[in-house]
Amino acid sequence: MSPVDSLKVELGIRSYPILIADGLLGRPEIFEQHLRARELLIVSNTTVAPLYLPTLAASLGKRRVVEVILPDGEAHKTLANASRVLDVLIANRLARDCAVLALGGGVVGDLAGFAAACYQRGVDFVQLPTTLLAQVDSAVGGKTGVNHAGGKNLIGAFHQPVLVVADTATLATLPARELRAGLAEVIKYGLIADPALFAWLEDHLAELLAGDPAALAHIIRRSCEIKAAVVGRDEREQGERALLNLGHTFGHAIESATAYRDWLHGEAVGAGLVMAAAASTACGLLPQAEAERVRQLVKRAGLPTRIDSVMPAVALEHMRIDKKVQGGRLRLVLLRRIGEAFVTADYPPEALTRTLATHFGGAG
Amino acid sequence: MSPVDSLKVELGIRSYPILIADGLLGRPEIFEQHLRARELLIVSNTTVAPLYLPTLAASLGKRRVVEVILPDGEAHKTLANASRVLDVLIANRLARDCAVLALGGGVVGDLAGFAAACYQRGVDFVQLPTTLLAQVDSAVGGKTGVNHAGGKNLIGAFHQPVLVVADTATLATLPARELRAGLAEVIKYGLIADPALFAWLEDHLAELLAGDPAALAHIIRRSCEIKAAVVGRDEREQGERALLNLGHTFGHAIESATAYRDWLHGEAVGAGLVMAAAASTACGLLPQAEAERVRQLVKRAGLPTRIDSVMPAVALEHMRIDKKVQGGRLRLVLLRRIGEAFVTADYPPEALTRTLATHFGGAG
């Protein structure tokens, strides 16, 4: 068996481990050791459940297990589906000392986590991420929620998991498109905190795209390290944690303007990173050559760098309802250089206008 | 103007004041001093809004104010109505630095607080309780939530208000039935923490039922003191706070078995207190004479002491889905004497069976 790589998110009595290794879902001792609850609800989707639910169930021993299988895709991350999960918890009379397990990608994790946060005012929650995006980003940090027709993740809660189990073997069945989407968040970590990681991605992109296990394990470990440190210092996004939203205000606008149906979240973030870099350059902050490195890496990762089907004015409208508006001003995460980001509402409005005009519909 | 009585719930950076006085809703300086947000959503109901919303709105100055008026009653404390409040927040694009104000009783406060907890993962929340029950109990402490057909408050969040404004003038328009319902929670405070308060209620019940402002101000102040202290020591109900549920496991069973349509919450709690006292006697804990004092005070307050329309087996079924079940055992709050309560799952099952048999349908 491969050795288990273990990290910790330090949040006092709510600290929790992140376990990373090949084949973890099939190892009963992992759950025996780390999972206290005897009654479980597993939330998964129609794509992931047939692949990994039997393996997981076999590892859970004599615990009582109830399942909810949701349709796959961001368009299903709705309050109606969270309500469906709550109905199942209540119909099966799971008690306050139960745990909700999310087996799937970011959609399943965000939605199941929100249901766990609301059920009986909060029950234990376990993240079992099966996509690269979830393993490097969304499964860690306690942001849960659902989308609304009016905007991305507008309904949600901070609810930390008690355990994150990233079984890297699940990436072997991950479609190439999903793998690329996950890389967007890894590029983000390089941009906000680690220029060496960014350079490493530039050098090892081919191995990653080929699904090389060692290369993937490296970026999962490094991404979780960065995210765990940021979340440990600023759980509720009073400050530093907002840096993790680099590219996301643009990305969320793309997702909500397209009704969550066209692009994967990571694809929208990929384009969003290019836009954030372009806006930083337009503000006179990021050298043009560095913005070009961002664009090139996103493009080589097979991710979009612009979107033609949404007009700039529509994008701006969607950005205004994003959670980053405070005191009437839209805050952006901008780059000073690769590896250094900051949050500001104090930028020339035309820098944003120009970025939208050159990266959304109608431009060349 | 009457002097403002001020208490504080001590929760570190999330501490907040409880202001109690006659006419507070009509005093703009109260909101100028204590309310930071410039964009507000007021949630109220069809009974309270016509009486107090114009006064409140006039006190809010130049702030942007949006309103949602819900139907009145516990049967409307649903996820569907919380979703409606969220729709209004999103449709009006209220930003993360907005505040949600609950103007009404416990139903409005619980539901609006839950919407505030979920909107953008948590926005500021202000309690403006207009019923005795809300002023003495539900507006303080941060428990928010909605009911489910399967059980009371099964969906919710801990989300503390930033401010509680108890305008005692609103009690002048409160129906007698609602006033009595509020007294149930005050009796509860006497039973769990303050035998002198219990004795004071026995001596001054007539003044309270007549709506005497000084007597009401006394019990609101004392109830808030007790609740603020308990919540300050145990915000998330890891221990002591569970004592505040005295009578509520029985009461919740009554409410959910009758689909939240027949009894007010305080009426169900009144009967629940009598049942908790009877169960305590059946366990050989509370002297019979003290249980009889409880029953007499609840009865003199004009509250029910038993329920005929629900059968014991049905009540037990509803108790089993209440949030107090852990490790397969239903925990109860029991009394050792008036003024001393404790939580236990270690009681003779027949004590519970006997209590249900003598206080629910089919008994004499």
Within the largest sheet of chain A, what's the order of strands?
A: 1-2-9-6-5-3-4
Tally of individual domains of chain A: 2
Q: Oligomer, anyone?
A: homodimer
The count of β-strands of chain A is: 13
Could you walk me through the main structural features you see in this protein, from its secondary elements to its overall organization?
2 copies of one chain form a homodimer. Chain A has 364 residues and is α/β, with parallel strands linked by helices. The first copy, chain A, has 2 domains: 5-173, Rossmann fold; 176-359, Dehydroquinate synthase-like, alpha domain, CATH 1.20.1090.10. Helix content of chain A is 46%, strand content 20%. Chain A has helices at residues 28-34, 48-59, 79-91, 106-118, 132-138, 176-193, 195-209, 213-233, 248-257, 265-282, 288-300, 312-320, 349-359, and strands spanning 5-9, 16-21, 39-45, 64-70, 99-104, 124-129, 143-148, 151-158, 163-167, 325-326, 329-330, 332-337, 340-344. In chain A, strands 1-2-9-6-5-3-4 form a 7-stranded mixed beta sheet. In chain A, strands 7-8 form a two-stranded antiparallel ribbon. A two-stranded antiparallel sheet of chain A has the order 10-11. In chain A, a hairpin with a 2-residue loop joins strand 7 and strand 8 (151-158). In chain A, helix 5 (132-138) runs parallel beside helix 6 (176-193), helix 7 (195-209) packs antiparallel against helix 8 (213-233) and helix 10 crosses helix 13 (349-359). The radius of gyration of chain A is 20 Å and the shape is globular. The mean pLDDT of chain A is 96. The interface between A and B is medium-sized, with 35 and 35 residues.
